[in-house]
Amino acid sequence: MFIDHAGLALFPSVGIFRCIGRLAFPLYCFLVAQGFRHTRDIRAYARRLLLLALIFGRISSAMEQNVVFSLLLGLLALYAVRMLKGNRLFSAMAVFALMLAAMAARVSFGWLGVALCLAFDYARDNRGGQALSAVLLPALYSLTLLLSGVSRSWVMVSLCACLSAVPILLYNGKPGLHHRALTLAFYAAYPLHLCFLLMIRAMRIIPPYFLH
Question: Global pTM?
Answer without folding.
Answer: 0.82
